[in-house]
């Protein structure tokens, strides 16, 4: 059974799952009733950072315009433009054996595309979650449901995988940002 986390909780990933090398990060959400005339286009991304939480170059940002990290360690499975349907809306595959040694953390984020133009924010999003799945078996290992604590934010750092010695752990972050993707990129050291 999956471990269900609350905001701020950290849990071992590889220590309790010996032999685990590949995980699928599933991110999902629903949109509340909204009559603004636009679809909601939420975008998942991954930032591969050093110990201080900054990317070493812009290619350490994996998203809909850069689907695969140069190391092959992180691969975005494609952009879902509407969020329709059940289950994961977007997925990111991570091969823990290929993560370069200079990468200490992989932060998973969700932003609302053109949020300012469309007048949209995370106050209009519900049932947002991140889950970590053993890619080999399909078994869900970790799940973090974000709850409804956001209002005006247009970007959220949902969670992160991070190194702890030779092991990997998961941190349920749930931290919101105003300013969308640009603010998120600046936070992780990408020039926009």
What would you say this structure looks like, in words?
With 192 residues, the protein is mainly beta. The protein is 6% helix and 42% strand. A hairpin with a 5-residue loop joins strand 9 (125-134) and strand 10. The chain is globular and about 50 Å long.
How would the blueprint of this fold be written?
Blueprint: E1 3-5, E2 10-12, E3 22-31, E4 42-49, E5 61-62, E6 74-76, E7 90-95, E8 105-112, H1 115-118, E9 125-134, E10 140-145, E11 155-164, E12 167-177, H2 180-187
Parallel strand pairs: 1-10
Antiparallel strand pairs: 2-12, 3-7, 3-9, 4-5, 4-8, 6-7, 8-11, 9-10, 11-12
Describe the global form: globular
Mean pLDDT, to the nearest integer, reads: 89
Gyration radius (Cα, Å) is 16 Å
Helix and strand run: EEEEEEEEHEEEEH
> How many strand elements?
12
Helix content: under 10%
Number of helical elements: 2
Given as residue ranges, the uncertain stretches (5+ residues, pLDDT < 50) are none
Main sheet summary: 6 strands, mixed
User: What order do the strands of the largest sheet run in, or round the barrel if closed?
Assistant: 1-10-9-3-7-6
Share of residues in strands: 35-45%
Oligomeric state of the chains present here? single chain
